[in-house]
Amino acid sequence: MRRAALALPLLAAATSALACWSPAAADASTTGAGSVLLVFLPSPPASPARGGGPGASTGAFEARLAGIGGLSVGIMSATQGRYTTAQFLLDITQGARVASSAYPTATPPGLSLRQAGDGAVVEGWQAARTRAGEAPQLLQPGLLAAQIPGGGAYAGITGLDDLDGVAAADRGGRVAAFSLGTAQTLLGRVAALRRSRRFVVADLPAGADGLEDLRVLSTGRTASELLIVLERTPNAPGHELLWSAVGGLAGGAGKELSSATTNQRGLIAAIDIAPTVLRHLGLTIPADVRGAPIHTDGRLRSASLTGLLARLRVIGGRRLEALGFLLCAWALLLLMSAPWPRARAWAMRTGGLGVLWAPVAVLVPAALEPSAPVEFATLALACLGLGALTDLLVPWPRAPLAPAVTAVALLVADALAGTQLLMRSLLGPDPILGARFYGIGNELKSGLAVLVLAAVAAALYPVAAQGPAQTGQRRRAAIAMAGTGVLLAAVEGSARLGAGVGGVILVSAGFAVATVLLLPGAINRRRALIVLVAPVLGLVALALLDLATAHGAGHYTGSILHARSAGDLRDVIVRRYRAAWDELHNHAMPFATVLALLAAALGVRRQERLLTPVANDAAWRAALAGGLAAGVVGALVEDSGPVLLVVAVFALGCVLSYLWGRPAECPSQAPARTPRRTRARRSRARTLSAGPAR
């Protein structure tokens, strides 16, 4: 029985090959006619020896896919937020998604298929459409099948869950053709559906039978057919990243998958399925589809892909622990050096510089992919070691130049070379969340701005106070500050590098504040206008940069400039601010935000006291003010909201720790300015003590 069932698709393939000799078939192929088969293959059971869990069978599943000829393999971002099978399938049908927290209810309604005639209808579909309509983005469940003439078809196995048939539902929740039967007849039923439908979804059996079916489908695939394979997992959180494979893409088999959505080798997203299917069928891709067609990118390296998936699954859980370990190591260093003033000052400098070296140090364990304890120890030793070495080799207060230049250079090199070290690091974009896959993540944007501002101040130091003799020096310093801001904005905003719209805005605002404070003369309305206009000019420059380097496919041009109406722009704004508000309620973020605001207010009030080590130097004053402005603006424009403010204030604290650890042999290069009120009080005292004029 099994052999007869396996012979059916081979017979269908032979019949199809003979039909290709007919003129009608030739006409169909030239008009872009083709078919797509989307199959779901169950994950192998987790090994008890490995502790079970989502990652227990990672290598086994990838090895099974790679062992089947004709396929290219990749990791798929299944959802944005916590994984549920229903949301995963809805995202496939609509080709777009938002975070689960952005919906009125985090989990989708219960969905199930009910046979109706030759097809089926999805129970709960109207509730799913209503929920999507209330989300802050235009989402249309069923958009994929609705674009395909004749609709979609589904072939399942009696007695097993048929929820995957939702992927074949149209806008009305209807599956045009529906077939249930035994596992032995599955391939024959799939072949029958493919003769009448151009888009077929099927569930393969688990275990060796499913792999054998997939091998038959792959080897029997015609040139005009696209075969897409997705991992089928239990409906539970922890499966945000799944394995996927595609056969029939241009470029051949045995490659790694990628797409413009992720811009990462070996990584695609669920919303890329819809545009891939529609492009293969020669159909128009609707504007509401936000995904991008899947393509191949380089030779398949199974070990590298398996390691990448394992790495991405642990990044989020290690971030705060790694930071805590680093701060504890710094605190221990301060405690051990407390009895000796010179040693205590050295510990302040070393620890502050060590944290500033973190964007570079995190790349080391990203390349090694060690266990959690080893990563924490490596990061702490690397940061403090680099901090101590920098303090030894670079005179105070110029040491921030070293981590700033090194960090920007390595991040640019990583992006251009495609080494994916930043993505694998604890300060990367964290692709498992499903929102960002490449570029500079929100946590790093404001911190990098503070680091570069401190580096410019270190290079310019000392910059004298206001005065006619210092006009030329201050103008040159302002030009240097503005030029550096332009370069950093290009790095954080370029589609090939940072890909951060919010990064451009916060960098433009922060460096504009610093530049205005460095200009000779008093702050006036014209200079305040420069600060307000700088982010707008930054966005215009980013649009031109996207058009020049990414052909309009960058993050900014794709989400903002391609918006079709004011409603689309409103949806983008609402979605970002709702995410920022949700972040404000996340774990300890309320306490951290209040603490950052109090520290910022105290710093502004006592700014002259804070700048005592550098004698109230103008460059350092401008840099610290610009860093705080970058954090505040970043919190207002980024969907991570308060995280950017907290990171900026924390980075500013590290810079001040370095400055306040000034060595005893490094006196201030300019006398500290006496506050205006103190000068007036001393003047009156001298007048009174002098007595009446004689």
Q: What does this molecule look like?
A:
It contains 27 helices and 13 strands. With 694 residues, it is α/β, with parallel strands linked by helices. The chain folds into two domains: 250 residues, Alkaline Phosphatase, subunit A (3-Layer(aba) Sandwich); 277 residues, no CATH class. The strands form three sheets. Strands 7-5-8-1-9-10-2-12 form an eight-stranded mixed sheet, sandwiched between helices. Helix 17 runs antiparallel to helix 25, helix 19 runs antiparallel to helix 20 and helix 23 crosses helix 26. It is elongated and about 90 Å long.
Condensed summary:
The chain is an alpha/beta fold and 694 residues long. It contains 27 helices and 13 strands.
Assign the structural class, choosing from mainly alpha, mainly beta, alpha/beta, alpha+beta, or little secondary structure: alpha/beta
The averaged pLDDT comes out at: 86
Relative helix content: 40-55%
Number of strands: 13
Q: Ranges with pLDDT <50 over ≥5 residues? A: 1-32, 48-53, 670-679, 685-694
- As a percent range, the share of strand residues is 5-15%
How many distinct helices?
27
Q: Gap between N and C termini, in Å?
A: 126 Å
Structure keywords:
single chain; 694 residues; alpha/beta; Alkaline Phosphatase, subunit A; 8-stranded mixed beta sheet; 3-stranded antiparallel beta sheet; elongated; disordered N terminus; disordered C terminus
Secondary-structure blueprint:
Elements: H1 2-19, H2 23-30, E1 35-42, H3 58-66, E2 72-77, H4 85-94, E3 112-116, E4 119-123, H5 125-133, H6 143-146, E5 152-157, E6 174-175, E7 177-181, H7 186-194, E8 199-203, H8 207-219, E9 225-232, E10 241-247, E11 255-259, E12 267-269, H9 273-280, E13 294-299, H10 302-337, H11 341-356, H12 358-361, H13 363-368, H14 372-393, H15 401-417, H16 421-424, H17 442-460, H18 471-493, H19 501-518, H20 525-549, H21 555-561, H22 566-584, H23 589-605, H24 607-610, H25 618-637, H26 642-660, H27 676-690
Parallel strand pairs: 1-8, 1-9, 2-12, 5-7, 5-8
Antiparallel strand pairs: 2-10, 3-4, 4-6, 9-10, 11-13
Helix pairs in contact: 1-7, 3-10, 10-11, 10-14, 11-14, 11-26, 15-17, 17-18, 17-19, 17-25, 17-26, 18-19, 19-20, 19-25, 20-21, 23-26, 25-26
